[in-house]
Design a protein that fits this description.
2 helices; single chain; rod-shaped; alpha+beta; Immunoglobulin-like; four-stranded antiparallel β-sheet
């Protein structure tokens, strides 16, 4: 099973055979273009656990060949992605940069979250007119209705219907 890493410096952990301490653990890595790295030397943590901070410079699949005291022991596959950074950037961009016009009608129950949030913003920001039988939300320019809802009061319960 491949291990998943982000672009940049990542900690690679290696467990020596039988958790044997005091070994010299090294590795070569092949990048996605199959260019071989220089020999990398791991640092022992304790009890046969070793680590290496390795710079995965590009997206793709890396292959590692691990040695203990100069003898090849195992291989590793490392998938390098840029998703964590990309997702964060896309979310920030969507929330802070992307703009959406105000609704011209109330959203349907199955509308996107953007349409629903735009509707809530229009309800909070725009003028709302009300008579004894109807409530109307106006657009930002106050030159057209976005939606209307029937209202009523039977002296016990005030009711507002759905906006249409």
């Amino acid at each position: 099973m491949a291990e998943l890493y982000d672009i940049g410096s990542n900690r690679v952990v290696y467990r020596a055979e039988s958790f044997t301490a005091g070994k010299t653990v090294t590795a070569y890595f092949w990048n996605p273009s199959l260019a071989k790295s220089a020999l990398q030397t791991f640092t022992e943590i304790e009890l046969g656990l070793y680590y290496l901070d390795y710079n995965f410079a590009s997206v793709g699949t890396y292959i590692g060949l691990f040695y203990e005291n100069g003898v090849a022991k195992t291989t590793g596959i490392f998938r390098v992605i840029a998703l964590p950074t990309t997702i964060n950037e896309e979310i920030v961009d969507a929330l802070n940069v992307d703009t959406h016009g105000e609704p011209s009608t109330p959203p349907a129950a199955s509308s996107s979250i953007v349409e629903k949030l735009s509707w809530l913003f229009a309800l909070a920001r725009n003028k709302i007119k009300q008579t004894s039988t109807q409530q109307t939300i106006r657009n930002d320019a106050d030159d057209a209705d976005i939606g209307t809802a029937d209202v009523g009061d039977d002296s016990v319960t005030a009711t507002r219907g759905k906006f249409t």
